[in-house]
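Query form — protein Laccase

QUESTION: What is the three-dimensional structure of this chain?
INPUT:
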Amino acid sequence: MEALKIIANPLSSFFFTCILLLFANAASAKTHYHDFVIQATPVKRLCKTHNTITVNGQFPGPTLEVNNGDTLVVNVVNRARYNVTIHWHGVRQMRTAWADGPEFITQCPIRPGKSYTYRFTIQGQEGTLWWHAHSSWLRATVYGALIIHPKEGENYPFPKPKRETPILLGEWWDKNPIDVIRQATRTGAAPNVSDAYTFNGQPGDLYKCSSQDTTVVHMDSGDTNLLRVINAGLNQQLFLTVANHKFTVVGADASYVKPFTTSVLMLGPGQTTDVLIKADQPAARYYMAARAYASAQGAPFDNTTTTAILEYKTASCSSNCVKSKPVFPSLPAYNDTATATAFTTKFRSPRKVEVPTEIDENLFITVGLGLNNCASGARSRNCQGPNGTRFTASMNNVSFVLPSNFSLLQAHHKGIPGVFSTDFPAVPPVKFDYTGNVSRSLWQPTRGTRLYNLKYGARVQVVLQGTSIFTAENHPIHLHGYDFYIIAEGFGNFNPKTDTAKFNLVDPPLRNTASVPVNGWAVIRFVADNPGVWLMHCHLDVHITWGLAMAFLVENGISELESLEAPPEDLPVC
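ANSWER: The structure tokens for Laccase are given below.
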């Protein structure tokens, strides 16, 4: 009788339905358990075998597949000789900053012989993300795809493709990547560029000793394939094309986008792009090719081209097309900024979105390189940068220094003094012509571990302004723990009087990594609704090594659901 009374009341009936839906959703969400063993594994590329750091002996590492709402529990055991952490790139980590992974930011590293279990839930994200090491240059080989399908029973907002294929673009050094960055850190010079780019770990037909293992993507005539493209490269933006085919872009950084058609993709390291490709050409073999978008004038870069093969699996093709040479695509010029810009500015959210319009925190942050003068008496072998200097990089003239005895999150959580300060400048200490001819007196930044404090719920706007110090280039800026709206981008110096007219406050794209144009700027907005310490940095690893980073300290809100969870018991100690 009581149950009948509840259902008879329409309001009670509504709440009863809501509770049932809540339980149904909770029931359909799963917990996925994985073991990651970090270990040295013999990997042969470009005719040479290297003892390469891998996960579970695989290169690239395992692909993890989950549904929106699922929980991941990944036990990482370090059997390598280096410290390691794993970052789940683009995962919001709501209240679980302890699982974010950047070394000395949210955790101390996992020492050789030790382990740590990452536990987090995927909430409201669908599409392609990825995971990678976030310690020194280990992510050169320690990386893999993280695929988030819609909740069970829900569909993509586009026709379901016949196939789905992760495409991980990487960079390969014909030596130990850790030795490459250690040598550069010793000398102060730029590190050696990579020797090859890779498709799913394989360089492809244009490199020595590689054609027998070239990655092949199979398709049936008339079918549509969802390619989940990830730029897992360490230091290079990449163009990607497929001969005689076009892409329909449907997602980026685990958010859906308003579909658009393009013949070329450009991804900065850290970015993902989901594209549909239809097998609508004569049955044959077609090269997919990727090579550098190199925006820094005069800077050395790896100018090689990696290939994979798109192969039609049809009867008419099986006998003769395997023998025929694949059709080669045209690629943009290495410095084709116009093509890169045309691509990045096409992104829109599928519908009108809630962009913060009232702003509580308005930051203007310069991003760029610098040169440190060597002290008198310094050895020339440690001053191998231009004119006897050492390379550096900074945000707002602060070159970021990682702590070494505590992680920043631990120091914040426990109130440990002396590890960091919260005086990161909201504007550059000196105003100058950022993209012009910059005075040499501004090329040498200060060093520090300076954070910027944000109240829970603060509505934040950040203008990211590239500089031409030493050389201007496109910087992929990644913010941990958040997605943000990119409301505008442009070239030259950002002008608040005229450039605000370009702001898209209707349907800007939601991303976790923004390509700040060469000699230009980008404007992002987000709401600080996730407590913790969150790194914002250039995803060119050579630049983060030099200090092109800062971090936001987001305070707890009022309730438990607005507060950082307690640290896990197995959190590594420094």
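ADDITIONAL NOTE: The CA atoms of residues 17 and 23 lie 10 Å apart.
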